[in-house]
């Protein structure tokens, strides 16, 4: 999967970096958190940042394991956002906070799912094969 043929995956990487690096800034600006809380939350945000960078590098360098990297970022994204969404809805947050975070969760999970789909379609196509010769949806079904 070359980077020019992976627009959804690139969008997921950019989105992830935006959401989670912003989160790091917000964590360290929150004076109500203890140092331990700040470091724990920063660790989670850095896990997303590192996975997004790993996916970007794997796409850029066309590494053989780029599909695994995409699936790792996507799985982590969906798992964390499902867990966070449940906690956010159950906790005592105002409606605006809940809505904003549920929108972040939905966008993140949709991008993650679409990136996995895009990756799977491209894994079925050799990297050097011209796009015009790439198999399409029907060609990927085993007969």
Brief digest:
With 143 residues, the chain is mostly helical.
Structure notes:
The protein has 143 residues and is mainly alpha-helical. It has one domain (3-127): Substrate Binding Domain Of Dnak, Chain:A, Domain 2, CATH 1.20.1270. The chain is 72% helix and 0% strand. The protein has helices spanning 7-29, 35-60, 66-90, 95-123. It is globular, with a radius of gyration of 18 Å. The two termini are 24 Å apart. The mean pLDDT is 89.
What separation lies between the terminal Cα atoms?
24 Å
Tell me the CATH architecture. Up-down Bundle
Q: What is the CATH class?
A: Mainly Alpha
Report on the biggest sheet.
none
Indicate the CATH topology. Substrate Binding Domain Of Dnak, Chain:A, Domain 2
**What is the domain total for the residues?**
1
Class per helix and strand makeup = mainly alpha
Count of helices? 4
Our estimate of the beta-strand percent is under 5%
Low confidence ranges: none
Query: How many DSSP-defined strands?
Result: 0
Helix content range? over 70%
Radius of gyration from the alpha-carbon trace, in angstroms: 18 Å
């Amino acid at each position: 999967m070359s980077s020019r043929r992976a627009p959804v995956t690139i969008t997921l990487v950019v989105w992830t970096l935006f959401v989670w690096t912003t989160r790091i800034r917000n964590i360290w600006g929150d004076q109500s958190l203890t140092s331990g809380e700040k470091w724990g939350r920063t660790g989670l945000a850095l896990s997303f940042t590192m996975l997004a960078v790993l996916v970007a590098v794997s796409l850029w360098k066309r590494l053989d394991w780029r599909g695994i990297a995409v699936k790792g970022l996507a799985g982590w994204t969906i798992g964390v956002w499902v867990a966070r969404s449940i906690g956010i809805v159950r906790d005592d947050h105002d409606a605006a906070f809940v809505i904003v975070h549920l929108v972040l969760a939905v966008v993140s999970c949709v991008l993650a799912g679409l990136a996995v789909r895009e990756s799977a379609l491209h894994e079925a196509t050799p990297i050097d094969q011209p796009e015009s010769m790439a198999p399409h949806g029907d060609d990927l079904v085993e007969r």
